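for the writeup, i need someone to sanity check this before i put it in the appendix. the sequnce is what the collaborator sent (i think, or maybe the updated version? ugh). structure was predicted straight from it, no edits. if anything looks off just tell me and ill rerun, i have time this weekend
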Amino acid sequence: LTLGLAILMIFFLGFYGSLNVLTYRPVRFQCRKFVEGIYQWVQCEEAEACMNVNKNRYRVIHSDFFSVTEKFELYCDKKDLLYLMTNVIMFFSPLSCFIFGYMADFVGRRKALFLLIPIGLVGFLLSYFGNEFTLFLVGNCCLCSFLQSMVMLLYLYVNEILGRKLRSVSVALLSLSYALGEIVFLGFYDFMTSYKQVYLAQGICIIICIPIIRFLRESPFYLANTKQFRKLSKMLKKIMETNFKNNTVGITRWRPRSGQKK
């Protein structure tokens, strides 16, 4: 059950994997050129359209999908903002993994997963409703931090909570589920006309994760640190029963060796 819930969460988190590909689509340009004795609008490359000599002599071709690039005009003089956004996100995402990974040792994996939900929701709201690039940048930092930290904590949680048999295949199943979420999300792309619909799908996935986390049990590491030995004993017994389901030797009562204290 624990592995199934983790796989389900990773599947919905996989929806975010295709986000950058869809929302940051490059725009196409038309340049005004003198062709066959008259000025005409012809399709041209971005480098040509953004040249100083062609300033005010190009236009953007509006596609069927209203992308972030088109919304904030992240081309020509503002193209560097795309690289700035990438660098900022790449800095804050690993930083959030470090912070929440460290925090999870004190508050527990399950509670740390819950604490990530508000960050994801704030990121969704800023990305969806933000009309300023700065607000949009902060929203994307929150969303990426939420995703990276959530995936990291789920991998740690699964490896702590599962027995040896399931642990050996859990990483492969989680990775496969994440990739499947990306593939399924691409099937909805043909029905979307704006980047806001992509973020709306992400907001729905974040909300779906809330009841799933409620059904997760706390990790043995946290229970041992907080000296909740009764709950820890029940959990370890359950892990042993799952791990040695068809092997009665594995679940026999432990007896000390000769000369060893109980």
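Strands lie at 28-35, 38-44, 58-61. The radius of gyration is 25 Å.
thx in advance!!
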